[in-house]
């Protein structure tokens, strides 16, 4: 088994598979973080070392991507927005989740689905400003002087 560096069209196709298409969520009330998820597994009967090496490299690149995203600390509140400006409709977890390899014999598998809980972390000052705007009915572009309500 050999592999080579993929061409640009292949990379674009891979990227498209890792994002949510607007067409699928346009008329629905779903989060854009919902993506296609298929249960499954692959049994590799030959070339185990090569497959493990390739999956190891994929996981290293996924970890490198996840670390790069986590390194955006100066703009932590808008990390997601920055990332989605560069890669629209990207589902970060789908790109950064490692591929799992099981070397023992598998006797049974189970698959479950869950509704993901999305946590958004916001700075205290941002929450206070939002609450002040709500109280006084100020428009979204309002700038608080932070001296009182």
What's the layout of helices and strands?
Elements: H1 8-17, H2 22-25, H3 48-70, H4 79-86, H5 92-96, H6 124-136
Protein name: Putative DNA replication terminus site-binding protein
Pfam families: Ter (PF05472)
GO molecular function: DNA binding
Model description:
With 149 residues, this protein is mainly α. It has 2 domains: 8-110, no CATH class; 119-149, no CATH class. Helices cover 42% and strands 0% of the residues. It has 6 helices and no strands. The protein has helices at residues 8-17, 22-25, 48-70, 79-86, 92-96, 124-136.
Strand content: under 5%
Q: What spatial form do the alpha-carbon principal axes imply? A: elongated
Low-confidence residue ranges: 24-30
- How many H/I helices? 6
Mean pLDDT comes to: 73
The figure for the number of domains is 2
| Number of E-type strands | 0
Structural class: mainly alpha
Taking the sheet with the most strands, its summary is: none
Share in helix: 40-55%
N- and C-termini, Cα separation: 67 Å
Could you give the order of the helices and strands? Answer: HHHHHH
Radius of gyration: 21 Å
Keywords: Cytoplasm, DNA replication, DNA-binding
InterPro entries: DNA_replication_term_site-bd, Tus_dom1, Tus_sf
GO cellular component, one term: cytoplasm
Protein name: Putative DNA replication terminus site-binding protein
